[in-house]
Amino acid sequence: MPESTRIAEVHVTPILISDPPLLNVQGVHQPYTPRTIVEVVTENGMSGIGETYGDTDYLTIAQAFGPELVGRPLTARNDLFARVAAAAAEVDIARIDNTVVAEGLRGARTEVKLVHSVVSAFEVALLDALGHETGLPVHALLGGKVRDRVEYSGYLFYRWAAHPLPGEPEDDWGAALDPAGVVAQAQRFADRYGFRSFKLKGGAFAPEQEVAAVHALHEAFPDAPLRLDPNGAWSVETSLRVAAELEGVAEYLEDPTAGTEQMARVAARTSLPLATNMCVTALDEVPAAFAADAVQVVLSDHHYWGGLRATQDLAAICRTHGKQLSMHSNTHLGISLAAMTHVAATIPDLDHACDTHRPWQTEDVITAPHTFRDGCVEVTDAPGLGIELDRDSLARLHRRWLDGDVRDRDDAAAMRRVCPEWQAPSFPVW
Ligand SMILES: O=C([O-])C(=O)C[C@H](O)[C@@H](O)C(=O)[O-]
Ligand SMILES: [Mg+2]
């Protein structure tokens, strides 16, 4: 492939995918959630695909930036951030208010974070296309894999059996609203996918109930590393109480309390490691959090950090500062799972099984969705990401987006359909 191979077409396609009624501190997942699918096509007819958030602001930036890639060299990735940021500056981004919102439960919402998430989809698509042009897998383009399988953890959620209205998407997982329900869900995850570690999304019920669920999981799976993540819902004192009850049971507590300062106060008084995907989610948040030793484990996420190479950079920063690395996940499809798996395969010191929402999704836009064996996804050596876009499925899910009115993830609004008085909580909740 000549270095001058150029991009001939870029397609940015919003879709709505079905999502089960998973509970978190902000509310409950809506029946449908938006994603953005990016495809680049080279002048040689090779295609590359990427995936990111589909909420209005991300989509607006992606749609503004997409056409600018046409005519650019396929190998030009280093200026993506500057170019996407410039595109973002030209459009109206309506909802930047530096508050925590549901579409990611990712700490303060800033323009830089939006830009990173958009960059990630284009970077992955460019790497995928480059892989097809060269015959190399994405992990090789990132320096090569150091493992043949990437381990994921079973991501447990409190959940309702069904969304409230007839005709909304259904699955057969049933409700999980107490420790027995959580253990049954974990058992099904273990039987079906072989997961050997579990994360419970907390913040849905009082901490004592969630601690009881983690103890029940420990009893049922004594060797499994366990995590509990209330997305910052607890006060410092509550976090310390929970930490004391879960020492020796959990491998880490994820964002027990909100913000670097409070996390540091908890970290100073427990030996249980604290992990975050809320207070260290962009480079400018690193110095203060590391100086205060507020976190011991950083959850990478290539959507947050601006792509696969940025994730490798984050790994180097964590290594330098003696921090461990794990991986966060939001609702995502197989394109992102492929990207997560390729980058995870290249990071020597990925210390924990990665999170993934993928087992909760019943739809996808790739022709052969991944399978989990022993909780792991095989690292493919096929060119690019090693996946193929399912164009019929993409068209169907895009049609749903065109016909529907969901444009943003809003877990509080979804909760209000069942509990009209529900408000997004003020923190700490407990
Ligand atoms: O903190 C986390 O792990 C997440 O925010 C992951 C997801 O966003 C999860 O909380 C969700 O979708 O409800
Ligand atoms: Mg988290």
From TrEMBL:
Membrane-traversing stretches: none
Family annotation (CDD domains): D-glucarate_dehydratase (cd03323)
Keywords: Lyase, Magnesium, Metal-binding
Biological pathway: Carbohydrate acid metabolism; D-glucarate degradation; 2,5-dioxopentanoate from D-glucarate: step 1/2
One Pfam family in the UniProt entry: MR_MLE_N
Class of enzymatic activity (EC top level): lyase
Enzyme Commission identifier(s): 4.2.1.40
SMART domains named among the record's database cross-references: MR_MLE
Reactions mediated catalytically: D-glucarate = 5-dehydro-4-deoxy-D-glucarate + H2O
Domain Mandelate racemase/muconate lactonizing enzyme C-terminal: 179-273
Cofactor(s) listed: Mg(2+)
InterPro entries reported in the protein's UniProt record: DgoD-like (IPR034593), Enolase-like_C_sf (IPR036849), Enolase-like_N (IPR029017), Enolase_C-like (IPR029065), GlucD-like (IPR034598), Mandelate_racemase_C (IPR013342), Mandelate_racemase_N_dom (IPR013341)
Entry superkingdom: Bacteria
PANTHER family hit by this protein: D-GALACTONATE DEHYDRATASE-RELATED, GLUCARATE DEHYDRATASE
Family in the record: Belongs to the mandelate racemase/muconate lactonizing enzyme family. GlucD subfamily.
Protein name in the entry: glucarate dehydratase
